[in-house]
């Protein structure tokens, strides 16, 4: 199997489980030491980490004499799922209008959970935001000490019209102004 293929399989399983229980989550790279650093992720909902999953770290596999194997694992907070499951769900048909994707790179306090930024974006964006995905969290030389950079993509979708650039720009500006009130800024 190709590199990363198993990670996407286990990610699909976790996404399906959360979807069945009506739990909205955002995903970011995992820092769990037992997971492969490039092929693992954490799921967040309401600013709380509710799952970690991916391929097991090669060093861990070596300790169990499994160095030639590719092993995947998922750890899910079942208590959170039981308490927050949405049993009655409203399904809506796919929109016939195109979606618009915008990427953002943000700077925030290192101690602030990335899931909080995602929840704030959902709050300020309103119903036109279809989904938001964190695809990278970075700390290092280009980032001020005590801060981290968060890269994410936002997908906007309307069910009754095609969204134009002016509308998306205004919505993005509203999101950025809202984030600034929580000390989260666009990365220059």
Please describe what this structure looks like.
This protein is of the alpha+beta class and 188 residues long. The chain has helices spanning 5-20, 58-63, 78-84, 114-125, 165-180; strands spanning 26-29, 35-45, 48-56, 72-76, 100-109, 129-138, 147-156, 185-186. The strands form two sheets. The chain has a four-stranded antiparallel sheet with strand order 1-2-3-4. The longest helix is centred in the first third of the chain and has 16 residues, at 5-20. It is globular and about 55 Å long.
Strand order of the largest sheet: 1-2-3-4
Count, helices:
5
Name the beta content range: 25-35%
- Terminal residue distance: 40 Å
Sketch the topology as an H/E string, one letter per element. Answer: HEEEHEHEHEEHE
Indicate the low-confidence ranges by residue numbers. none
Helix share bin: 25-40%
Q: Provide the structure class.
A: alpha+beta
Coarse shape: globular
C-alpha-based Rg, rounded = 18 Å
Most strands sheet: 4 strands, antiparallel
On the 0 to 100 scale, the average pLDDT is 86
What is the number of E strands? 8
Oligomer: single chain
